[in-house]
Amino acid sequence: MKCVCVLGSPRVNGNSEILAQTFLKTMESLGAETKVYALNKLKYRGCQACMACKKNLETCAVKDDLIEVLDAVREADVLVLASPVYYGDITAQTKGFVDRTYCYLAPDFMTIPNPSRLKPGKKLVFIQTQGHPDVTQFNDIYSKYSNFLKWYGFEESYLVRSTGVGDKGDVNKHPQILEEAKSVAHKICQK
Ligand SMILES: Cc1cc2nc3c(=O)[nH]c(=O)nc-3n(C[C@H](O)[C@H](O)[C@H](O)COP(=O)(O)O)c2cc1C
Fold first, then answer.
1. What integer pLDDT is reported at residue 23 of this predicted model?
2. Containing H/E element for 41?
3. 146 near 99, Cβ under 8 Å?
4. What is the pLDDT of residues 140-151, one digit of tens each?
5. Per-residue b/e over 59-71, b at no fewer than 16 CB within 10 Å?
6. From atom 12 of ligand 1, which residue's Cα is the shortest distance away?
7. How far is the CA of 143 from the centre of ligand 1 (A)?
8. Closest residue (by CA) to atom 1 of ligand 1?
9. Measuring from atom 23 of ligand 1, which residue has the nearest CA?
10. Ligand 1 centroid vs 185 CA: distance in angstroms?
């Protein structure tokens, strides 16, 4: 099983990365192949709306560091998308990546039943960390992005979320959420 992780936080070894690495280590122990991309280390732009992927190309025409990430996700069985909440949403780094996944959609995506260019059966693990302790705050983020990804064929998705984690490493004070990350890996590998 191929698992690609996209880290959306600029903070190295921050809360979202700790959760992602906990998940990935468990996946590796269960035999999965893993690859991590830290978006903040890459040079890339958001979608340029050139529409090349809706005219003459099946891939993104913007040639920058994100091409390798987009290709890796195409080949992956599992995508881990890990982002802290910044101003009520995913980080700008993560959003830039999400916008570029527009190339996964066929030209007539608005009207056809299977608009995705990706092979079906992929799984999404969405990792969300936030400083605010109230779970009702920012609980729209996962449904919003998992729905877009469902459209691409990520039928099965899991949320691993930690609230009230403001400082770097705070997530380590919540062993139950680290256990949850491990348990999601077990669930995915059992199937
Ligand atoms: C620019 C910025 C904006 C933030 N906005 C929010 C927010 O809107 N709501 C919230 O609960 N936490 C917010 N936070 C806190 C982060 O979500 C929190 O510290 C998170 O655990 C960071 O994850 P990381 O360690 O993986 O980077 C913000 C932090 C920064 C730096």
1. 98
2. none
3. no
4. 999 999 999 999
5. ebebeeebbebbe
6. 131
7. 19
8. 86
9. 84
10. 25
In single-letter form, the type of residue at position 116 comes to: S
* Residue 125 neighbours by CB distance under 10 Å: 26
Per-residue 3-state assignment (H helix, E strand, C coil) for 110-131: CCCCCCECCCCCCEEEEEEECC
Write the pLDDT tens digit of every residue in 138-185: 999 999 999 999 999 999 999 999 999 999 999 999 999 999 999 999
CATH fold of the domain at 2-190: Rossmann fold (3.40.50)
* Best of 15, 81, 130 for a ligand 1 pocket test (most atoms within 8 Å of beta carbon): 130
- Give CA–CA dist 188/135, Å, rounded: 25
Q: Give the mean pLDDT of 60-74.
A: 98
